[in-house]
Design brief:
By secondary structure, the protein is an alpha+beta fold. The protein has 9 helices and 5 strands. Strands 1, 2, 3, 4 and 5 form a 5-stranded antiparallel sheet that branches. The two termini are about 45 Å apart.
């Protein structure tokens, strides 16, 4: 349920919302935009071969969303030309990104010019694309590596599955809560493009660390006392350490909220909330409950219980019930 809060999450902060407060640079940009085209201070740049510059300039004049095309400037060796393009929209707006796409289409293949489009808008686009690529590649790779490590440490295939699911769910729950706070409390219009990936890396590694600490202790107690009798004492023995470590870590990341950069604030909030969810909900309630519900199959194909321990556990009867033969 908590994870549903991130369904309408928006990424990508404009320059106005990169820092909190009202810095002079933002005020100057707003004053400039009030009297000149919005993209005047940060034009797009079209780089082409020098001989193709006139054709490039002519093509750009017919592109919607362009306020001005400046004369080309030649490189020191005279081989390349730079044509600056003032956009009608602000450089970090959606309209500017669409204009840039039209510019690429207009100059593509002109006299085999091999033109390239740069500038702040292009840089922001490519940064967002790189972040999206990293999320598609790094997140699955991290999950696979962590899953393999859990199998090796716990010598089980079943146990790592719910453990990984709890980590992923706690991440999305933290993201959902944080996004609602960003919108309705802190007034941030979007999440910085780096927050989702960095938050995932922090929360997965920290969450799995707590998982390993708890479940490894459960495995040791199960070996001597049976499955159910081993889960609850292990939770009691590790609860204080995990709770203390989680509280300190959450406070450490929450200190990032004192920074003026919005990206730092967002990372601090996401990770702090995620660590608290891991500490007080996932590790204290969800993981032990899953281990009890799954039963001894939680350790498949391993068998942490010795034969004598398994016989004693079976003789104790089902959890909360009478021992076999009690009603005879």
């Amino acid at each position: 349920m908590l994870a549903l809060g991130c369904l309408d999450l928006r990424t990508g902060l404009d320059d106005e919302h990169l820092v909190i407060g009202g810095p002079g640079s933002i005020a100057g940009q707003e004053l400039l935009a009030a009297h000149y085209p919005a993209g005047q201070s940060r034009p797009a740049e079209v780089i082409s071969r020098a001989e193709a510059a006139p054709a490039v300039a002519e093509a750009l004049k017919h592109v919607d969303g362009i306020a001005e095309v400046t004369p080309a400037t030649l490189s020191t060796d005279g081989e390349l030309a730079e044509t600056k393009v003032v956009l009608a929209a602000d450089a970090d707006s959606v309209a500017a990104a669409r204009t840039l796409d039209r510019i690429r289409g207009a100059v593509h293949g002109i006299l085999e010019a091999d033109a390239r489009v740069g500038g702040p808008t292009a840089l922001a686009q490519e940064k967002a694309q790189a972040q999206a690529h990293d999320r598609r590649v790094i997140i699955p790779l991290v999950l696979v590596v962590v899953f393999v490590v859990l199998i090796a440490l716990l010598r089980a295939v079943v146990a790592p599955v719910p453990l990984m699911l709890t980590v992923v769910l706690s991440y999305f729950a933290a993201l959902g809560i944080s996004w609602q706070l960003f919108q309705h409390v802190l007034g941030f219009p979007a999440v910085d493009v780096q927050v989702m990936l960095i938050g995932f890396l922090f929360l997965v590694t920290l969450g799995v660390d707590y998982n390993i600490f708890l479940v490894h202790r459960i495995r040791e107690d199960v070996r001597h006392h049976g499955h159910r009798a081993g889960v609850l004492p292990a939770l009691t023995a590790t609860g204080g350490v995990i709770t203390g470590a989680g509280a300190v870590l959450a406070a450490t990341f929450a200190a990032l909220t004192s920074a003026p950069q919005v990206a730092f604030i967002e990372i601090g909030v996401v990770v702090a909330i995620g660590v608290l969810i891991d500490t007080f909900l996932v590790r204290s309630v969800l993981v032990p409950a899953l281990a009890l519900d799954v039963g001894p199959a939680f350790w498949w194909p391993g068998r942490p219980m010795g034969r004598d321990t398994a016989v004693r556990a079976a003789a104790d009867g089902p959890p909360g019930g009478a021992a076999p033969g009690a009603n005879r």
